[in-house]
Amino acid sequence: MKITDVQFIISAVRPEQYPEDGLPEIALAGRSNVGKSSLINTMIMRKNLARTSSQPGKTQQLNYYRVNDMVYLVDFPGYGYAKVSKVQREKFGVMIETYLRERELLKLQLLVIDIRHAPSKDDCLMYEWLKHYNIPTCVVATKADKIPRSKWQKHMKLIKETLGMDREDTMVLFSSESGLGREELWNIIAERAVT
């Protein structure tokens, strides 16, 4: 997809702060430091619009990025980061569950998982949540450049089995370094955004 215009719109914590222009939304969830911000920057062909950090727990709201006036990418706070207080984690949980339960403009959830590691308990819980709310899901296995190509299939199989993935859910192999998976993911997003 050719990116002509990208804007950071808002960091929202409550439904009344969500944009009201009716554009379809594609949300990203994943553990802290799994590469969500890098994925967004790769998708929109910008270096640092989504702030990346080596320090986990940087994103603390729902960050809305409007792409080509056609779709929003909505970045969730990372989960599973130990240094975030229990109270803060509960707030994140409520904020994310409210969004997943109530946001009719959500067309697809990207569940971002580091291909080098088996999905965590939190990843599995998130996947179960998405299935519970009948939200179309695409698992994105990031950091593909960090393992040999010969091991991709084995790692993807482990992710699918650990999550207990449904057949209708897709998985995309992704690398922010090489751009692997970018076009495939935009095709999936474009298809979901119009349904």
From TrEMBL:
<comment type="similarity">
    <text>Belongs to the TRAFAC class TrmE-Era-EngA-EngB-Septin-like GTPase superfamily. EngB GTPase family.</text>
</comment>
<dbReference type="InterPro" id="IPR019987">
    <property type="entry name" value="GTP-bd_ribosome_bio_YsxC"/>
</dbReference>
<dbReference type="InterPro" id="IPR027417">
    <property type="entry name" value="P-loop_NTPase"/>
</dbReference>
<comment type="function">
    <text>Necessary for normal cell division and for the maintenance of normal septation.</text>
</comment>
<keyword id="KW-0547">Nucleotide-binding</keyword>
<keyword id="KW-0460">Magnesium</keyword>
<keyword id="KW-0479">Metal-binding</keyword>
<keyword id="KW-0132">Cell division</keyword>
<keyword id="KW-0131">Cell cycle</keyword>
<keyword id="KW-0342">GTP-binding</keyword>
<dbReference type="InterPro" id="IPR006073">
    <property type="entry name" value="GTP-bd"/>
</dbReference>
<keyword id="KW-0717">Septation</keyword>
<feature type="domain" description="EngB-type G">
    <location>
        <begin position="22"/>
        <end position="195"/>
    </location>
</feature>
<dbReference type="Pfam" id="PF01926">
    <property type="entry name" value="MMR_HSR1"/>
</dbReference>
<dbReference type="InterPro" id="IPR030393">
    <property type="entry name" value="G_ENGB_dom"/>
</dbReference>
<protein>
    <recommendedName>
        <fullName>Probable GTP-binding protein EngB</fullName>
    </recommendedName>
</protein>
